[in-house]
Amino acid sequence: MKSPLADRIIPADISEVAGQSHLLGKDKILRKIIESKNLPNLIFYGPSGVGKTTVANIIAKECNKKLCYLNATTSSTADIKEIINTIGSIDTQNGILLYLDEIQYFNKKQQQILLSYIENGDITLIASTTENPYFYIYNAILSRSSVFEFKTLTADVIKAVLERAVKKLSEEQNKKIKISEDNLLKIARASAGDVRRSLNMLELCSMLCEKDIITDETVEQILAGNSVRYDREGDEHYDIISAYQKSMRGSDPDAALYYLARLLAAGDLPSACRRLLVCANEDVGLAYPQIIPIVKAAVDTANELGLPEARIPLANAVVLVANAPKSNSVYNAINTALADIEKGNVGDIPRHLQNKHFDGEDATVRGQNYLYPHNYPNHYVAQQYLPDILKSTEYYKFGDNKTEQAFKEYWNKIKKK
Q1: 132 exposed, middle or buried (CB, 10 Å; 0-12, 13-18, 19+)?
Q2: What is the DSSP string of 7-37?
Q3: Which stretches of the chain score pLDDT less than 50?
Q4: Could you give the CA distance from residue 132 to residue 46 in angstroms, rounded to a whole number?
Q5: Which string of DSSP letters, residue by residue, matches 38-56?
Q6: Global pTM exceeds 0.70
Q7: Residues 17/51, Cβ–Cβ less than 8 Å
Q8: Vertex 240, ends 256 and 234: CA angle to 5°?
């Protein structure tokens, strides 16, 4: 069986690697490390299909060490120990280069097993991960490694790889395969920065083409079956939901709908609903308080309907939140109050608010002396509610929207009386 196109055009050296010029360009640090052949432990961090494994393979060719490969999704502690047991053998006299793919799937104990061998140099580790390494990799390994972030590839970079791949396919099939520049760019954009995905789509196109020409119809057919997905546990997931809320907060309904569509296309209904509820409370808040039950009703409807119909109530709610007036006054107020708690500014609850009705012999003030607001005009009476150490603190500040300014005007009149 023929290997995937991505493997058949794999770069032979660093100069052929697509993108990552911030790491592999002339005089850049990772390139200098590779060229020096004085290899430290390395951690490659970034999305799938951007060259992490490719660069690791090139490094393996450049260094005089035995290459061992493990994928943490399928490997066990026994696999690690099997590699460790080869230390000191004839073919490992110069040490072992261990390429550990998806290291985030190794638990802490498995990562700890490697630690002592990394420290004494018996094993040089190159680990790759699609997750933020500072969250998922054992700190002792992080402190002994250099972390390099691989960036998502641009459509133009991927298009250049596809052009090279078309030449490769033409050579293999002994015919000149033709595809327009526009269609190459469409495939590049549809891959969402993943060069491997783009090459898979191109190869499918070449299998379906007639008379050596990849037509617009063929490309559209392949793209329709390869809609963009993302890993719900990966960084891209958090980037999309971040952009989703920030677009609603920024009052851009078009962008908000686009990111909602990204979430729903990936089947991620829970994130779409949760972030919508957050935004209604955090970013609209008291500027339009009625929006909170409205959005909750839309979310309940969406969850009852399920996909694909769920898109309709959610789209209604997203456009409403994006176009609603905004206020984060309450969000700021509760955060400031929590900050005081975390600092230890708690204080004693004033005696008249406490839930007790009898005083001890040592009490300096006897009796609860609580003033019941409903017994006073306008249901209000001035009295201290905060502890003494915080009694002058103001957490909530009225927002500049119509609703909160109406509250402010009302209470100014009442409290001045």
Answers
A1: middle
A2: HHT--SSGGG--S-HHHHSTT-HHHHHHHHT
A3: none
A4: 8
A5: ---EEEEE--TTSSHHHHH
A6: no
A7: yes
A8: 165
